[in-house]
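Final report, Chapter 2: Outcomes

The project's central promise was a pipeline that accepts a single protein chain and returns its three-dimensional structure in a standardized token representation, suitable for archiving and comparison. That pipeline is now operational. To close this chapter, we reproduce one record exactly as it appears in the project archive, with the input sequence first and the structure output second.
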Amino acid sequence: HILRQGGHFGYVLERTVRLQDDGLESRTSLRLRCPQNHPVSWFPHPFWAQTETTQTAYRLPETATLTGQLTHDADGLIRINRSLSDSGLGVAIGLWGQRGNIDCHLSTTQGGGLMRMEISWPWDHVVVWANDHASSIEPQLGRIWPHGERADWSLRYRWVE
């Protein structure tokens, strides 16, 4: 516990990570111990290997509005559209409260395959980042939690192909 604005603030964070035959599962439990409501923000930050910015692609719900350097390819997959920089960044918005999966189409020069992210929490927005060495997709969890409430969420990475 720490003292914050005249009140005590603390938390209990539990993480469980399990390897499975077809991927990995991560479960998180957070209990806030403070006298007031408090903001909580969390996101996964996976790195997928690639040798060119556009090699990794993602499938998000059709309601996503793309900003920054994100673009749809001919197959409807989301990729970084690198302009003059060595890396790209974009945000998919219009997903508030969305739940579901993100399909990650991995670089064929690095082994390829389809990795599905099965996400239990409602999304705020999704950040996509890439350079010529790696790509990352980050579905953001951000909420104000009532004091004393327990928050649980899970993320599973599963090979589909």
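Archive annotation: The mean pLDDT is 88.
This record, like all others produced under the grant, will remain available to the consortium after the project formally closes.
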